Amino acid sequence: MKNIVILISGAGSNMAAIVRTARLGGWESRLQARIAAVISNRPQAAGLAIAQQQDIATAVVDHRSFADREQFDQALAQAIDRHDPLGRPALVVLAGFMRVLTPGFVAHYEGRLVNIHPSLLPAFTGLHTHQRALDAGCRVAGATVHRVTAELDNGPILAQAAVPILVDDTADSLAARVVSQEHRIYPAAIAELLRH
Ligand code: GRF
Predict the structure, then answer these.
(1) Pair type for strands 2-8 and 91-94
(2) 179 lines ligand 1 (CB under 6 A)
(3) Exactly one of 83, 117, 130, 146 is catalytic; which is it?
(4) Which end of the chain has a smaller Cβ tally under 10 Å, C or N?
(5) Taking the domains of the chain in order of start, what are their residue ranges?
(6) DSSP secondary structure code for residue 93 in this structure
(7) Do residues 174 and 135 lie in contact, with contact meaning Cβ atoms separated by under 8 Å?
(8) What burial class does residue 40 get, using C-beta atoms within 10 Å of its C-beta: 0-12 exposed, 13-18 middle, 19+ buried?
(9) How far apart are CA 114 and CA 118, in angstroms?
């Protein structure tokens, strides 16, 4: 069985979309894959309750309890690897996980670490992507699923979706249009990875 661990920091709507697709799409029987755990760096992340309602194991590794990034990332990796009998989950999925990861962490999960970013990369890496797209006068925006490399919001692109920017858009209205596409492309990109 391929074990998938999902990392979140907040609402967890992408995580919920992945869980829903995994259930509806029969990933356990068709892809020999299961969502083994959902881990948050924030104890109050709303997504934790969603995962628990779905009978998925949850854990919190609170970044504020660690002196530096290396120590946090080591504890996080231990919490992740515990959810696979061989200590090697097939996939670690960043789904609204708002921490910059150390090169050591990224190297440990090389080839097994994916992220979704709310822009059409390579445009608008980092934060506040929707407001920046509006400020730049962009006519389209979107989201990107990509493999994670040591460089922030970089790495080979696995999937993208574009949406129009409308004249009366705010960052919030644009974010809502983009996130509904995220919920479509992220589960599909993960299923595609699991097939290979
Ligand atoms: C998404 O827009 C994702 O692309 C970004 O943060 C947001 C997380 O939303 N990294 P959610 O926690 O999945 O609801």
Answers:
(1) parallel
(2) yes
(3) 117
(4) C
(5) 2-194
(6) E
(7) no
(8) buried
(9) 14
Q: Can you read off the two tokens belonging to residue 165?
A: 């920017």
Q: Which two tokens stand for residue 150?
A: 């040591």
Residue tagged 């970089």 (tokens): 154
User: Ligand 1 centroid vs 13 CA: distance in angstroms?
Assistant: 7
Q: Could you tell me the two tokens for 179?
A: 């996130």
User: DSSP letters of 77-89?
Assistant: HHHHHTTSTTS--
Length of the chain: 196
Q: Is the CB of 12 under 6 A from ligand 1?
A: yes
CATH class of this structure's domain 2-194:
alpha beta
pTM: 0.97
pLDDT tens sequence across 78-123: 999 999 999 999 999 999 999 999 999 999 999 999 999 999 999 9
Paired tokens of 108: 């440990």
Tokens of 16: 């919920």
Please state, in angstroms and rounded to a whole number, the distance separating the CA atoms of residues 178 and 123. 15
Whether the upstream peptide bond of residue 187 has omega within 30° of 0, thus cis, is no
d(CA 56, CA 180): 23
Reply yes or no on whether 117 is catalytic: yes
